[in-house]
Design brief:
There is one protein chain. This protein is 46% helix and 11% strand. The chain has a two-stranded antiparallel ribbon with strand order 1-2. The chain has a two-stranded antiparallel sheet with strand order 3-4. Helix 2 packs across helix 4 and helix 3 runs antiparallel to helix 4.
Length: 208
């Protein structure tokens, strides 16, 4: 998802309409025999590529599709194309699709910071591309620390702590698992209290 905060919640300015980007790369890596985690191994292979092969570039408005790229890239491998060239083409196509959506989101919102989060935030190549996007709009790129990028449990716990400190509580009896609870359905009252977003290290003048 490409998100921006406005009012009392995050707003979605673009999202995948099929498979998530990290899942797409991991699926490709498994099928290509690279193993897991997929992102660094596919990028290592891409570094040995020298030729771009055109792949489906599926950006529809502000949304993206990755399944077609995945299917076509695997087909190229089965046809005997150079694996480095296929990985190069696969990674570059996916990341530039994301960059296009982010560029339009920044142009629309006027935001001056881009935050890259999730498992794919470990990607050196994606960070490089998003830095170019940030510089183009005189913005700043912030990247989640690598050791936290893939830890959904830590992200959920931190959000729960912010909610608790903002006065949001629910009894155990009323709590349920909502598998399809979208981020743009959740209010974020802690944004009205910036002190909640500052860590102890940041208060002491250190990097958060």
């Amino acid at each position: 998802m490409v998100l921006a905060h406005s009012g009392d919640r995050y707003r979605v300015f673009g999202e995948t309409l099929d498979v998530a980007v990290g899942n797409c790369i991991d699926m490709f890596a498994r099928e290509a025999g690279f193993g897991f985690p997929g992102v660094p191994r596919v990028e290592e292979c891409a570094a040995r590529g020298s030729r771009y092969i055109e792949l489906p570039y599926n950006v529809v408005g502000q949304d993206v599709y990755f399944a077609g790229i995945y299917t076509r890239a695997l087909d190229l491998l089965k046809r005997g194309e150079n694996v480095g060239d296929v990985c190069l083409s696969f990674i570059e196509t996916i990341y530039y699709m994301l960059a296009e959506v982010v560029e339009r989101g920044i142009a629309l919102t006027g935001k001056k910071e881009i935050v890259l989060a999730g498992g794919v935030a470990r990607s050196k190549r994606l960070i490089e591309i998003m830095n170019h996007v940030a510089n183009e709009f005189d913005s700043r790129l912030l990247v989640v620390p690598h050791q936290l990028a893939g830890d959904n449990g830590a992200m959920i716990a931190w959000t729960g702590l912010l909610a608790l400190k903002s006065g949001l509580q629910i009894s155990v009896e009323e709590s349920i698992v909502k598998q399809r609870w979208r981020i743009d359905e959740v209010s974020t009252p802690w944004f009205n209290n910036p002190k909640l977003l500052i860590t102890d290290k940041a208060k002491n003048g250190h990097e958060s």
